[in-house]
């Protein structure tokens, strides 16, 4: 059943095609009303939540467990005694995969808007499946840059982003809770996959491990078929008519098509620009612990049996943080949700700097517990903030461009840390520097709510001035006509 909030005003003459729309669908949007009030009340929405949970869990479970694959890749290449840059080269495999998830996001936004969440997600899962499966048939690090880094990374991006957007079609008032369930449930993968990879990796080898991981993506292909959009597509008929009238030459036609597919309107909002820049700055050091922490404890504490516990701790507290932050985000009004991200980035930076200060393996475990908590708060609250900043109809584009901006720093962080290890012979400086960008990014994000409040006050003042001018004009008209003003 559908619930419409607020109810639409009656219309005498409905245009063609509106009768088959869901209540408040394209008609509401064309009239400038917010169709996000539609809430689909039914069990199918929770099936979508399960599919999105599997998508997030399988993709980021594999990505966050790359520390295990990182050691296996080096062992598969002979340990790297003869190559002094092996740390840098091996880290680039995982960094490329994570970076491509974000780099492809603006393109994924276009596909999501034009061909739908279902087709985009299923196609992406198929590409990721091919990437993981083909990674098992080579031992070349350079080939795995393409199969794992490019194919698996790009496919993951096309599968992942629609899983964020589709939740906004089925939930409004409980969107934060739905995101929290998806993000928290996906952390079960992050908790179990490190132990799973450690066990099967030593038993069946790296090649067969990639084949087993590809099965997760095959299941995701089937689950992506549940991503049936509820909200109607964009009502661009008026803008298309204007574009056709204005397009008199090839240059104008190209410009019209670029505006159609690359919606840059989200960047007109100052608050969105600052928010996106702050997050892009913060994530430069975000992925460094996930890649290098396993290797660090092996070198520093000679721990080669229980190092997988660190990734389990990261996944466990990340799941807790996602569940808690989803519920907290629903209780915090407006853009004040950003302060959750500010706190998480500040604490994440401090915890990265604390890793070299730990003199025992147990100390690193405690640090990982806090790192996972920060990860949970940061990830879960991202989509609700995007909806607050730009609205539900532009949320797909806003998330896409944000993830695209995150791609370069996310990709650069782990290889830079590996290069610093190759140069200095330890990870101390790498972890100290990895903590600086999250702190800077948190400080940048803290100004977004303040700027938003200032903009609202300015709009209210302008609106008050306009009302005064209208009142003065009406009074002058009455005086000129010799009438007594009402």
From TrEMBL:
Catalysed transformations (reactions): L-thyroxine(out) = L-thyroxine(in); L-tryptophan(in) = L-tryptophan(out); L-phenylalanine(in) = L-phenylalanine(out); L-tyrosine(in) = L-tyrosine(out)
Keyword Signal set for record: no
Pfam families reported for this sequence: MFS_1 (PF07690)
Transmembrane segments: 44-71, 91-108, 145-168, 175-197, 209-231, 272-288, 308-326, 338-357, 363-387, 399-421, 427-451
Keyword annotations of the record: Cell membrane, Membrane, Transmembrane, Transmembrane helix
One of the record's GO cellular component terms: basolateral plasma membrane
Renumbered residue ranges of the record's region Disordered: 1-26
Keyword set includes tRNA-binding: no
Cellular compartments annotated: Basolateral cell membrane
GO molecular function terms noted in the UniProt entry: L-phenylalanine transmembrane transporter activity; L-tryptophan transmembrane transporter activity; L-tyrosine transmembrane transporter activity; thyroid hormone transmembrane transporter activity
Membrane topology, from the record: Multi-pass membrane protein
Biological role: Sodium- and proton-independent thyroid hormones and aromatic acids transporter. Mediates both uptake and efflux of 3,5,3'-triiodothyronine (T3) and 3,5,3',5'-tetraiodothyronine (T4) with high affinity, suggesting a role in the homeostasis of thyroid hormone levels. Plays an important role in homeostasis of aromatic amino acids.
Record-linked PANTHER family: MONOCARBOXYLATE TRANSPORTER, MONOCARBOXYLATE TRANSPORTER 8
Entry's family note: Belongs to the major facilitator superfamily. Monocarboxylate porter (TC 2.A.1.13) family.
Annotated protein name in UniProt: Monocarboxylate transporter 10
Organism: Gopherus agassizii (Agassiz's desert tortoise)
Taxonomic placement: Eukaryota, Metazoa, Chordata, Craniata, Vertebrata
